[in-house]
Amino acid sequence: MSDAPLHGDEHEHHPFLQHHFEDMGQQHEASTLGMWMFLATEILFFGGLFLAYAVYRTTYEQAWVAGAQLQNLKLGTINTAVLISSSLTMALAVHYAQLGRRLATFYCLVGTLLLGSGFLIIKGIEYHAHFVEGLLPGPYFTWHGPMAPKVELFMTFYFSMTGLHALHMIIGAGLLVWFMWRTWRGHFGPEYFSPVEIMGLYWHFVDIVWIFLFPLLYLIGRHA
Amino acid sequence: MTSVTYHDVRLMEPAKTRNYLNVDYGFFSWLLTKDHKRIAILYMISISVMFILGGFFAMMMRLELLTPQGDLLTSDTYNRFFTLHGIIMIFFFLIPSIPAVLGNFLLPLMLGAKDLAFPRINLLSWYLYIIGAFVGLVVIITGGVDTGWTFYTPFSTQYSNTHVFGTTLGAFIVGFSSILTGLNFLVTVHRMRAPGLTWFRLPLFVWAIYATSIVQLLATPVLAITLVMLMFERVAHVGIFDPALGGDPLLYQHMFWFYSHPAVYIMILPGMGVASEVVAAFTRKKIFGYKFVAFSSLAIAFLGFLVWAHHMFVAGISVYSAMIFSFLSMFVAVPSAIKVFNWTATLYKGSVSWQTPMLYILGFIGLFTIGGVTGIFLASLGIDVHVTDTYFVVAHFHYIMVGGAVMAYFAGLHYWWPKITGRMYPEWWARLAALLVFIGFNLTFFPQFILGYVGMPRRYHAYAPEFQVLNVMSTAGASVLAVGYLLPLIYLLWSLRFGPKAGPNPWGAVGLEWATTSPPPKDNFHETPAVTWDAYDYPAFLTAMGETQHV
User: Fold this and answer.
1) Closest Cα of chain A to B359: distance in Å?
2) What's residue A221's pLDDT?
3) Closest-CA residue of chain B to A140
4) Domain B2-545 in CATH: superfamily?
5) This model's pTM is above 0.90
6) Inter-chain contact B179–A41, Cβ cutoff 8 Å?
7) Hey, is the C-beta of A138 within 8 angstroms of any chain B C-beta?
8) To 10 degrees, what angle do helices B249-283 and B333-347 make?
């Protein structure tokens, strides 16, 4: 969905207007709509996991509560804050890109990347702790607490859901690097900022997924 | 006033003879193309290979079933063959068939656009398809898979010792090809329409493709994540769907059919779009009840999401949910019947001509109706319990998939062949092939309704001797069908070189795709067309062309 020029253009067209679009407005509308539709697909992609989670959460409520107790609430909370902050810097990057403020956009993207990477590092620390405790489902599952098989099922969902989320973060981080480069080269401005805006949509989506994952995996059954 | 516009469009023929086929040559001008028309050709070649492969497995099954004993194939081989036949025909042929070939080629032309909204994503879709197909072929060469195309757990995750992982990976990858194609089409229909081309001036093919794309976009990701869970379970031996570890195999079936029932409409809806185009063109009439046909596509797409559990009536779901799903399934018949009635009403008093596309579509209407009515039988709980997993079900879905979708694909292929290639196919041979396909199809699958009703179960390589007569008929029909499918392969290739030049509009059809040259130039139109007329305005068009309209 990037927008590098396809052909040298004979008219005074914007250099990033692809030849099959009439104008920048149409191009912007098309790419934005494309990203929204992609997010619709993503919702259903994650939705399958959420559905399966919900089914077993109902069936094995006790085990699910026990599984949530095994999570590191402190790190999870810090990570939530880190990720929400990264959404702020991302939103600011879109704002500055629209204003054509190249350096401000660039630094906001750098901030987003740093916060995103921080999230992934903290997640990695958590994963490592789980592995050491024998909570990785499958052959390495050696944890022997109460309801161990059902807790293993909980951990299966924990790793599937946070793993899929982390994969999206890694892809997002790669895109951020690319857009940092493009920002540095001065590609974006008031005429043309669709890629940054679309990147923002994606990043906020990944953020929102975490906003659902955090209570479902860390907080259930912690009240009173 | 309208007539003048038609003249204008017809006279918009460019002087240049450069078209998308001869604009540049060479291997990489095809493999790296971003032209939707060339990508359509790439898809056409790829899915034809898969169709032949899937057909081979079908033919081997029919040969095995010639005799009651399991003598040609062992039961293990037979299990692999019906599985591969299903996977190839569904994931690698039918789902991409009309959308990725005809839709890809026609959508920008019908919308008066230069290309799809995202040409590079379009090429990416094809590459994803090829990677998925390659994984599938590796699986076939290294021993195949025997779970059935449905990959039911826990057999697929715990017991089968065939290549379940590779096959599901291939289906997973090709799923993203389907998602991206759907996304591209949706954005294109929303954002790339020519000036004046309002929603209710769109050809019904576009409406059908639009509805299909919604299903592709929203259903396919659920299959993708389901297959991810299946692969995870198989590799790491976790218990998501394994009852021994606390998982629920029924959940797998729910999630699988949440995609795979709507997938039926991914396969049939585009065929309905082709039917609308062809019926209007070969009756020289406005389609009857345009808005009803348009909205019935959306209704089918929507209702398709609410009926999945009718595949699970005997799987252990509660009676109450079975009753609700049975009731909802019947609802799909309403928009489907609206379409059939509207096509029939269009035929009424039309000046019908009997060229090949029309022959296929007349076959389509009849066979789809039979498939649809037997679908109602199966939606009824009592009958479904009686015929579950019998040849009745096999016959039913082949009437929809082959009698419906494949017939429509061939209709579309013949109808738009002159536009795609600039050449006419040989009419006599094509009619013969259409006739053979119709006869062969019915001879193959009608006996299977009877077989299923009297109790022959599906998916066995041997059967009781009293079923032999009907099985011999079915195998004989399959042979006729094979000839009917091979003939177009030969004469269509022949026509590329020897077919008469088609001209921009050999059928005298309306629609923007006929307003440009055959084959179209690289950018489709030399000027962006402005649309001031409704779809299928044949009366005005015929007046403008000075033809007399037979009423």
Assistant:
1) 37
2) 84
3) B236
4) Cytochrome c oxidase-like, subunit I domain (1.20.210.10)
5) yes
6) yes
7) yes
8) 10
Any A CB within 8 A of B352 CB: no
- Chain-chain contact of A47 with B225 (C-beta, under 8 angstroms): yes
The answer to whether B501 faces chain A, any CB pair under 8 Å, is no
Q: How far is B214 from chain A (nearest CA, A)?
A: 9
- Locate A32 and state its tokens: 């934005």
Which residue in chain B is spatially nearest to A149 when comparing CA positions? B245
Q: Do B218 and A41 make contact, defined as CB atoms within 8 angstroms? A: yes
| pLDDT, tens only, B382-420 | 999 999 999 999 999 999 999 999 999 999 999 999 999
Enumerate residues 6+ apart whose C-beta is below 8 A from B192: A20, A26, A30, B108, B111, B113, B116, B117
The verdict on a CB contact (< 8 Å) between B248 and A59 is: yes
What Cα–Cα distance (Å) separates residue B117 from each residue in A67, B174, B190, B473? 46, 21, 10, 49
Tell me whether residue A48 is in a domain.
Answer: yes
The angle subtended at Cα B94 by Cα A48 and Cα B301, nearest 5°, is 55
Is B236–A160 a contact, with Cβ atoms under 8 angstroms apart? no
Q: Tell me if chain A has a CB within 8 Å of the CB of B124.
A: no
Supply the DSSP symbol for B246.
Answer: T
Beta carbons of A41 and B255 less than 8 Å apart:
no
Structure tokens at B292: 């009803």
Q: Helix axis angle, B36-64 relative to B119-141, nearest 10°? A: 20
Classify burial at B379, counting beta carbons within 10 Å of its beta carbon; exposed 0-12, middle 13-18, buried 19 or more: buried
Cβ burial A116-129 (10 Å sphere, 16+ → b, else e):
bbbbbebbeebbee
Buried b (16+ CB within 10 A) or exposed e, B137-168: bebbeeebbbbbbbbbbbebbbebebbbbbbb
Q: Are B153 and B242 in contact (CB under 8 A)?
A: yes
Domain positions in chain B are: 2-545
Number of structural domains chain A divides into: 1
Say what the pLDDT of residue B478 is.
97
Q: What residues in B contact A44, CB-CB < 8 Å?
A: 218-219, 221-222, 225
Residue A6 maps to a domain: no
User: Which residues of chain A does B236 touch, with a Cβ-Cβ cutoff of 8 Å?
Assistant: 137-139
- Of B481, B398, B375, nearest to B90 by C-alpha is B398
Judged by CB atoms closer than 8 Å, whether chains meet at A149 and B113 is answered as no
* Distance of alpha carbon B504 from alpha carbon B497, whole angstroms: 18
Residue of B nearest to A49 (CA): B225
Instruction: Give ipTM to 2 decimals.
Output: 0.91
Residue B547, CB-side half-sphere exposure with 13 Å CA sphere: 14
pLDDT in tens, B71-109: 999 999 999 999 999 999 999 999 999 999 999 999 999
- Cα separation of the two ends of chain A: 48
Query: Among the listed ranges A31-40, A134-143, B3-12, which one has the minimum average pLDDT value?
Result: B3-12
CATH at A32 = 1.20.120.80
